[in-house]
Queue: 2 jobs
Job 1
Amino acid sequence: MEIHQLTPFLSVSPQISAADVGLAAAKGFKSIICNRPEHESQDQPDMAEIRAAAERHGLAWHYQPVISGQITDADVEQFQTLMNQLQGPVLAFCRTGTRCCTLWALSEAHHLDADAILTAASQAGYDLSAQRDRLQARSGQASQGAMKAPERRHEVLIIGGGAAGQSVAGSLLQRDPDIDIAIIEPRQEHYYQPGWTLVGGGVFERRETVRPMSDVMPHQVKWYQAAAHAFEPELRRVILEDGEPIGYRILVVAPGLTLDWDAIPGLRETLGRNGVTSNYLFDLAPYTWELVQSTRKGKALFTQPPMPIKCAGAPQKAMYLACDHWLRESRLSDIEVEFCTAGAALFGVADYVPALMQYVERYGIELNFQHNLIAVDGNSRTARFRVTDAEGNSQEVEKSFDMLHVCPPQRAPSFISESPLADEAGWIALNPETLQHSRYGDIFGLGDAGNTPNAKTAAAVRKQAPVVAENVLRALKGEAPRAIYDGYGSCPLTVERGKIVLAEFGYGGKLLPSFPEWIVDGKQASRFSWLLKEKMLPWIYWNAMLKGHEWMAKPEILHHSPTEQEAQEACNFADKK
């Protein structure tokens, strides 16, 4: 738990969990203020659980949601009123603590000097220098002649400190160690998400898949530990959650995507209990393994929503590893396993389907195509699906379950989909080869939030990052982008413990194997691929990919920029789908 004291009466914190409330009580806090709206991001804990924990520990609970980047005078007055009413010490939290700190600063401006407020905030770890004018205005000080904090600007500004953002930063620094880079990222942890499948399969420990963000953030990079709120591409700047603008020469947008748990009624309320789990969440992957070990008979459902989703093979991976365990424990004959996918095929690239079907038959899995999960009732352990036939007719069917592994619907983050950067579907509009924005030449993007028709995997990011780095440096020199991305993505399908079908493909489903067939035939399950997934890829991720070492990922450089026709041809297969 990270606590920053502003005054003896008030401390602020990034997002807390229900477990943190007990620690807060032990430290002597009497009241908690939540300044973060519910469901603001996919990794946000359940607010009802935090409130219940506060009530159990005798702490007063107050919910004052403030929209990121839109702190109004009314918000400030409401916060000041709360502070005058509450028994202290008080702990206020939001996503990073920045909004809480800003609310305090503005509420104190009527009787404290702006410099004193900014110094106190800085000592607590928050840079509010961009609020100087507003602080002086609220204090009634004459702003004429006062020194205005200059807008902070960087050569390259990156949105997102996940796999994509860190990899681009690493590739840029390998090419130019002196380049001025800043990363906007609110999280304090960095996750190796491809490892969560193996956590859910009992192979990895959860702690192996997470490190402090400060450990992976390059020391040369300026880290804004805040959330991006809005884009002003015409002014070449991004607005942070506290309203501060950050300028750039080149912007790289890599925020990841949002897991839309609320798109399925009843799902969020039952996650982590009643046999409902998902390897798509760091906190739930261990529960998947717990369920696999405890399930001895009954029905196990594994679901997959409509595309696009990240790691499209992940729902199957969870299923195959579970079936392999049940088979080894001689339980599989007592468990009905169903794969319910909204799609019309087992896998999007036909070359890999025969190998997967061997395991479907081996485990006795019932395949239910065009079954889209639309509701879950955890208490009765039932799931409702919309089933569509070949003629397009649909009906709803209900299935009972003893274990339910859910892959949630996925979309671009709201601050992307509602921005000028988005296409009609809400994703970042990118050239599929150069990864340059379709309308803004000084903006590039990569990773899960882009609209490029490739598999949304960490392996895709590994190939995209060098392309973006190369083209960003060219753009800084006023040159046209020349590095191209071929749509490479990889999905190591864990069909049993010790064997993997290594699917590697690019745009149009073209097979793009990394190794000669005599080393590994990706269309067959192999132990070499398992060794690659379990032992080699995690090491490569932490020690090479994030640091810009482009092993087997050097970008192809064209002698001319791709034409609009060439870019369109790279996406033709998406139109055919």
Job 2
Amino acid sequence: MTALAYGLIEMNAEGPGFVLSDAPAHVMIRLKAVFPALHKASRGPFRFPSDKMTCADLDWFVQRYPMELGDGVARALETGVVTLKADRAEAGRILSPNWTPPAFAGLRPGQAVRDVQARNVEILQRFEGLLVADRVGAGKTYTAGAAMLREGNLPAVVVAPAHLSRQWVEVLHRFTTLTAWEVETTKPYDLPPADVYVFRYSNIGKWVDAFGQFTDEAGLGLVVFDEISELRHGEGTVKGRACLGLARAARRRLGLDATPLYNWGVEIWTVMQYLRPDVFGEREDFLREFAPSGRLEDPQAVRALLVDAHAMVRAEPVGAIPVKKSIVHVGHDVEQLASAEDWALELARKAREGSFNERGQAVRDLDLRIRQLTGVAKARSVAHLARMAMADGEKVLLAGWHREVYDIWLKELAEFRPRLYTGTESQRQKREAFEDFVRGGCQCLIISLRSGKGLDGLQAASKTVIIGELDWSPATHTQVIGRLAREGQEADEVHAIFPVASDGSDPPMVEMTGLKASEQHGVLDGDAPLDVSARDDGSRVQALVERYLKQQDGRAA
């Protein structure tokens, strides 16, 4: 090493990237300030990935602190810097007001690609991985369809929730001249020739060994993960492992979801592993830099990184429909909830004082049973609210979760010919219920909170949605409301009604969804600071535990 060198950078012999060593103490301090992901207590050697952003940062650092460069390092750094500059120059051109979208060959007569969709496609072409987090109703499916028409993106694979696979095929055939094939079974078979194959998250795991049959010699062009928050648990699920295999095999990766974060903001790391794993690096580094406490400390900084890397875009839909949200305090069956006092208190005690396994099981049981009882206790009041909304012939979308609650609603609202669109019905039954609500005599469609994500067409029938049971995730509420607040809605605004009971699971759930919504908004929209005074309870239902224990303490006093 020369006298002027402040360290040594070599190519990593164990894999892609660089290794920096022999840096003096004052240089290491500066190095850790520039690269926060480096462990503060480490004295090196330090390993860096070879992505273009890291190359540019290392090159800049070496300008300030010259180092001895091993074989191939200078060329690798230069290549990364040149590529990054070219990418940013191209992104700047695409995002400029004077940019002219290219022509899209393969559109059906009368179809067109909007400018915002064309920009997203061009960003995807350049950076090869993109999260399109456009709000509900902005036309994300059409963005994917347009991307399939660009060079190098066929054959393509779409992975979608089961209730959306048929919709994908219909949209692609209506929008483009591409041939699309819906894969409905879990058992692999010889697929017919097609440009696009549409799988379901529920069957993709069974097709892992058959992936090779829908790629040509050039490999898989594009993989689209619709409602990508389905993959928020990552490789811990069968569908997560299968989709990661697709992501690594594809030339380009596109994630679609207006609500890619379902719970806390740290889910964004897992989501980006399927699209642009280079943006956040290793999970340990991400957590150390952005979430040392397990929660994002600065959601807006995460968003800034995503935007700066051109890894995420988010746009309002054309002609966005205003949503009027109303929280309505409704009565509930006091005896129904009072009957649960004894066992609820026992579960709360186990959740705090029991063994590790007892605590986990007690929390789950308390969550499920109190939510169910709360839904049942207020079910008739919710039905009464829906009845009033439908009195003038209006149609209502009524969202819930528990079968026992549905049964009460079906009985109380029988005169309005309610239909079910939940996890129990087959795809055929769901389509029949959908058609009856949109075009038939069904005045009330009872939909499961998580069964209608991405569903299009309900806006033609209704402008009122009632969230009859709450979900722990505010993203779920947003998605349900988005079935009506989207392009094609003829009303001036959509009315979203939240009937809330004063007891049971509703109070802590209202609080928790507010905390999560703040964090999610910071990552996705950037203009809402995280409420740092908000209490972090360490568990989504710990509030239920504390509620019952406090009630018991109050009675004892």
